[in-house]
Write a structure and sequence with these properties.
The complex is a heterodimer of chains A (453) and B (250). Chain A has 453 residues and is α/β, with parallel strands linked by helices. Chain A has eleven helices and 22 strands. Classes of the chains: A alpha/beta (453), B alpha/beta (250). Chain A: It comes from Ancylomarina longa.
Chain lengths: 453, 250
C-alpha cells in the first residue's frame, strides 16, 4: 500500500506533467485559481486522519489506486439522452446531464427555462459570460483550508454553471444528473458554480450515479452564491455502487433575507464525504441544512458541516439523521460559528442515529463556537437502537416483525424527507427510501428519481 | 377459549407468576384484580407475547392452539388484543397507515383481499363514531402528544378496528377521569359480542361498574388466590387488599 507521500507526489507529477492540458481551454481566472490551489495542495496534501477534520474518514485507501484522469472532454459513444429518460410525469424537471464531471456535449436544449436563465458547462460559462463567472468563481470555496478542495481547484476543468438573473423564478426544478460512466477506473473532478441573483428563486436536484462497475473517485466542489432575498433549494441524492468514493464539498454564501434549504440524502456508496460550508454573510438570512444517510455493508459516510453566522439576526436549522446497519460506519461533525457581532443569532442543530447492528458505528461531534452573547443556540446528538417497546406495540396489532421494523425505520427517516419543498420529489424520495430500507435497492443503475434507461 | 395451566413466568431470573390456572369460555368477562406488583401486567404481556418474560413452566392454549409457540403478530391475528396500560408513542407512523397495515394483515390471515382505500376510510369513520374518538387524533402519528385519556381511547379504537375474540385490557382505567372512563367502557361494551371474551385487569372496582364481569379473580404474589362472582370486586373496594395479604400469610 502506498503511503500518503507517494500519493501526494503522484498528484504533483500529474499536475506538472499535465499542466498544458489543464490550462488549455480554461479561462484565465480558472488557471490563476488553479496555480494557487496547487501550491495549497502541495502544502496540505490529501487529508489524513491526523487532520482533526478527517479524524473519522481514512482517505488513503480511496486515493491509493491507479485511477485514470481525463484532462479533456471525451466524446461519449452513446446518446445519454436516450439512456436517461425521465418517466415520472409528476416530477417535471429541466434535466441536464454531466458525465464524469464534464458537461455533456449533447445535452438537449432546455427550452422551458425563463428568459435570462443560463445552464451550461463551466468552461463555456467562463468564455461566454466572463462578468458573471469572474465575479464568483473561486470566491467561496476555500482551497487553502482543505487538501481535497485544493486538489479539485487545481484539476478542475469543467462542471455545471447555473445562473438565475435578478427577480426570475425558475418554477420547474433543475435536475442535474451526474453520471460516472467509464471503461476504466476513474478519478473525476467536477467544479460547479451556481449564481442566484437578487430576489430570484430556483430549486436544484442533483443525482449522482455510477453507470458502470469500475472504481470511481469523484471529487466535486460546488460554489453557490445566493443574493439578497433569493430563495434556493439544493437536493442531493447520492447513489453509487460500493466501489466508489464520493468527495462532495459545497460552499454556500448567503446575502440578506435569503432563504436556503439543502437536503443531502446518501442512499448508497462505498465511501462518502460531504463537506458543507454555509456563510451567512448578511442580516436576516435563513438557512436549513438537512441530511440523511442509510448505510449498510461496509459503507462509510462522513458529513462535515460548518455554519458560519457572520452577521446578526440570522436563523439556521440543521438536522441530520442516519440509519446504520451491518458494519457500516459514519461520522457527523457539526460546527456552528457565531461571530462576535452576530447578535440575535438563532442556530439549532441535531443529529440522530439509529444503529441496527452491534458492529455499526457512528461518531457524532457537535461543535459550537459562540462569540456573541445574545444568541439562541442548541445542539443535540443521539445514538440509539430500534425502540423495542414500539416494535412490540406494532406486532401486538398483527404487523409482522419485518414490516414493523420497516415502519419504524421509515418513520425515523421520514422526518428529514418531510423537509423537502418539492411535493413530487418528496413522494419519490419517500418511495425510494422505503425501498432502500427494505433492501430492494442495492445500487441504482436507473435514476433515483425514476429515470429509465 | 383460553386455557392457562400452571403458568410460571420469570424475568431476569426472578419468578413473577408462580402457577396460574385460568379458564375462559366464549362470551365471558373476567376481571383480574390485585395489589400492585402482584403480576397482573406480566400476565397480560405474556398473553400478548412480549419476549422480555420467560415462561419456565406451564401452558396456554387459545382456541385449541398452543399460544406460547406463536409470535406476537400471530396471536393478534388469531384474535388476541392487548390494550396497553401505557400505549407507546410512535412519532412518524401515522395512525391511518398503522391501522391499514394491521387490518390488512388480519384480512390476509383470514384469506381476504386487502381493503380498498375507500372501504378502509369508511371503516375508520364508523369505528371512530362507535368509540367516540376525536377525528383529529387519527390524523396524527400514533399516540404522539396524546393525553393519557386520548391514548386509552385510541386503544379502544384499535380494538374496534381489529374486532378481537379475546380482549385483554391492562389497567385501561388508570389515569382516566370519569368521563373518559365512561367513553372507554361504553366502547368495550359496544364491541362485545356473544362469542367474544374480555379480561379486564384493574386495581380498582370503579371500571367494573361499567364493564360488569362474570367472574372476578384476585391475583396476589404470582398466584390467583381467590375467584368469585362480581360481588368480590365490591368487597375488595370496601376492605382493600390487606385481608387478602393477611389470609395468604397464614
Amino acid at each position: 500500500m502506498a503511503d500518503i507521500n507517494t500519493i501526494n507526489k503522484d498528484f504533483a507529477d500529474l499536475f506538472n506533467q499535465g499542466k498544458q492540458l489543464l490550462m488549455e481551454g480554461s479561462s484565465e481566472i480558472m488557471n490563476e485559481n488553479r496555480s494557487k490551489a496547487f501550491q495549497d495542495f502541495e502544502r496540505l496534501g490529501v487529508p489524513t486522519r491526523a487532520n482533526e477534520n478527517y479524524k473519522y474518514t481514512n482517505l488513503i485507501p480511496a486515493f491509493d489506486h491507479p485511477y485514470n484522469v481525463n484532462l479533456r472532454y471525451l466524446k461519449v459513444d452513446v446518446d445519454l439522452n436516450e439512456i436517461f429518460q425521465c418517466d415520472v410525469p409528476e416530477l417535471d424537471t429541466n434535466m441536464v446531464l454531466l458525465t464524469n464531471g464534464w458537461f455533456y456535449g449533447n445535452n438537449k436544449q432546455l427550452l422551458e427555462l425563463p428568459k435570462g436563465v443560463i445552464v451550461c458547462g463551466v468552461q463555456e460559462a467562463a468564455q461566454k459570460y466572463p462578468e458573471i463567472f469572474n465575479a464568483h468563481y473561486g470566491k467561496y470555496a476555500k482551497p487553502g483550508e482543505d487538501g481535497i478542495v485544493a486538489l479539485n481547484t487545481a484539476l478542475a476543468k469543467d462542471g455545471l454553471f447555473i445562473y438565475v438573473p435578478k427577480g426570475v423564478v425558475v418554477e420547474k426544478p433543475i435536475q442535474v444528473v451526474n453520471l460516472l460512466r467509464s471503461d476504466r477506473d476513474l478519478l473525476a473532478t467536477q467544479r460547479n458554480l451556481f449564481v442566484i441573483e437578487e430576489n430570484a428563486q430556483a430549486k436544484i436536484i442533483v443525482c449522482d450515479h455510477t453507470l458502470t462497475h469500475h472504481k470511481y473517485l469523484s471529487n466535486s466542489v460546488t460554489e453557490i452564491n445566493v443574493a439578497e432575498n433569493a430563495v434556493f433549494d439544493l437536493y442531493t441524492l447520492q447513489n453509487q455502487h460500493l466501489n466508489s468514493v464520493i468527495l462532495n464539498s459545497t460552499f454556500i454564501r448567503q446575502d440578506a433575507h435569503s432563504n436556503v434549504l439543502t437536503n443531502t440524502i446518501s442512499l448508497y456508496g462505498g465511501t462518502i464525504r460531504n463537506n458543507h460550508h454555509v456563510l451567512l454573510d448578511a442580516e436576516y438570512c435563513e438557512n436549513n441544512t438537512y441530511g440523511m444517510y442509510l448505510m449498510d455493508h461496509k459503507q462509510h459516510v462522513d458529513n462535515f458541516t460548518c455554519i458560519d453566522h457572520a452577521k446578526p439576526n440570522c436563523v439556521s436549522n440543521e438536522h441530520f439523521k442516519g440509519v446504520m446497519d451491518d458494519e457500516a460506519s459514519g461520522a457527523f461533525s457539526g460546527r456552528i460559528n457565531v461571530r462576535r457581532d452576530a447578535q440575535k443569532t438563532e442556530a439549532y442543530q441535531s443529529n440522530n442515529n439509529l444503529l441496527l447492528s452491534n458492529e455499526a458505528l457512528i461518531n457524532t461531534k457537535p461543535q459550537l463556537v459562540i462569540d456573541a452573547d445574545d444568541v439562541k443556540c442548541s445542539h443535540g446528538a443521539t445514538v440509539g437502537q430500534m425502540d423495542e417497546d414500539a416494535l412490540f406495540y406494532l406486532r401486538a396489532r398483527g404487523i409482522d416483525e419485518k414490516e414493523a421494523r420497516q415502519m419504524l425505520m421509515f418513520a425515523f427517516a421520514h422526518e428529514i424527507i418531510e423537509k423537502i419543498r418539492v411535493e413530487a420529489l418528496k413522494e419519490r424520495i419517500d418511495e425510494l427510501v422505503d425501498k432502500r430500507l427494505r433492501g430492494e435497492i442495492s445500487k441504482c443503475n436507473t435514476c433515483a428519481v425514476a429515470c429509465n434507461h | 377459549m383460553l386455557s392457562i395451566k400452571n403458568l410460571h413466568v420469570s424475568i431476569d431470573g426472578k419468578e413473577i407468576l408462580k402457577g396460574i390456572n385460568l379458564e375462559i369460555k366464549p362470551g365471558e368477562v373476567h376481571a383480574i384484580m390485585g395489589p400492585n406488583g402482584a403480576g397482573k401486567s406480566t400476565l397480560a404481556a405474556v398473553l400478548a407475547g412480549r419476549d422480555l418474560y420467560e415462561v419456565t413452566e406451564g401452558e396456554i392454549t387459545f382456541q385449541g392452539k398452543n399460544l406460547l409457540e406463536m409470535a406476537p403478530e400471530d396471536r393478534a391475528k388469531e384474535g388476541i388484543f392487548l390494550g396497553f396500560q401505557y400505549p407507546i408513542e410512535i412519532p412518524g407512523v401515522s395512525t391511518v397507515n398503522f391501522m391499514k397495515t394491521a387490518v390488512n394483515e388480519h384480512r390476509k390471515h383470514k384469506g381476504l383481499e386487502p381493503l380498498k382505500a375507500s372501504d378502509f376510510l369508511k371503516l375508520m369513520r364508523d369505528k371512530k363514531a362507535l368509540v367516540e374518538i376525536d377525528s383529529k387524533l387519527t390524523n396524527r402519528s400514533v399516540n404522539e402528544g396524546f393525553s393519557g385519556g386520548e391514548k386509552k381511547k385510541n386503544e379502544i379504537f384499535q380494538m374496534a378496528m381489529l374486532e378481537p375474540k379475546l380482549a385483554v385490557l391492562d389497567e385501561t382505567d388508570s389515569g382516566l377521569d370519569i368521563d373518559a372512563l365512561r367513553v372507554v367502557a361504553n366502547g368495550v361494551n359496544k364491541l362485545k359480542t356473544a362469542d367474544s371474551s374480555t379480561i379486564v385487569i384493574t386495581h380498582y372496582q370503579r371500571l367494573l361498574d361499567y364493564i360488569v364481569p362474570d367472574i372476578v379473580h384476585v391475583l396476589y404474589n404470582g398466584r390467583i388466590v381467590k375467584t368469585a362472582g362480581k360481588e368480590l370486586a365490591l368487597e375488595l373496594e370496601e376492605k382493600g387488599y390487606d385481608w387478602i395479604k393477611d389470609e395468604n400469610k397464614k
